[in-house]
């Protein structure tokens, strides 16, 4: 009976040692930053897309520049037109930036445990790359499982 209790205790201590480096504030900060930046810049992303698909066909409206495009969309569809298609972008940016900051700070915390000196520049870069790989992997397998055969 004590063997099972010790096994459960060692299992919980293994999880606690892994999650000791995790701070959920970083996840919230990343999600918030991704959502807010996307909401602020989505009209410009929409203009970029409109220019990309406006390839000279007569069916699509012609725009003379960025401001002309924005004012045309505003006059035709109002604020709703400027934020057309914002929902998937907000979900994507919020979750991907949230995961990135979550992993980045957990990795940095893990690497600095027990050290008195700061990380070197290459260690910061490697931590950022690792966080990018982890967040990209989770994001793509979660949201695009058919592409990866999952």
UniProtKB/TrEMBL annotation:
Key words of the record: Membrane, Repeat, Transmembrane, Transmembrane helix, Transport
Subcellular location(s) per record: Membrane
InterPro entries xrefs: MCP_dom_sf (IPR023395), MCP_transmembrane (IPR018108), SLC25A32-like (IPR044712)
Topology with respect to the bilayer: Multi-pass membrane protein
Solcar repeat coordinates: 21-110
GO cellular component terms given for this protein: membrane
GO biological process: nucleotide transport; transmembrane transport
Family: Belongs to the mitochondrial carrier (TC 2.A.29) family.
PANTHER family: MITOCHONDRIAL NICOTINAMIDE ADENINE DINUCLEOTIDE TRANSPORTER 1-RELATED-RELATED
Descriptive protein name: Solute carrier family 25 member 32
Species whose genome carries this gene: Canis lupus dingo
């Amino acid at each position: 009976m004590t063997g099972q209790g010790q096994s459960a205790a060692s299992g919980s201590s293994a999880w606690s040692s892994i999650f000791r480096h995790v701070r959920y504030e970083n996840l919230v900060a990343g999600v918030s930053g991704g959502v807010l930046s996307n909401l602020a810049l989505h009209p410009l992303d929409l203009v970029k897309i409109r220019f990309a698909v406006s390839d000279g066909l007569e069916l699509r409206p012609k725009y003379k520049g960025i401001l002309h495009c924005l004012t045309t969309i505003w006059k035709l569809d109002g604020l709703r037109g400027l934020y057309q298609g914002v929902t998937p972008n907000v979900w994507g940016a919020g979750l991907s930036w949230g995961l990135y900051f979550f992993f980045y700070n957990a990795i940095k915390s893990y690497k600095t445990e027990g050290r008195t000196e700061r990380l070197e520049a290459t260690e910061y870069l490697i931590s950022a790359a690792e966080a990018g790989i982890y967040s990209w992997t989770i994001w793509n397998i979660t949201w695009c499982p058919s592409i990866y055969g999952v």
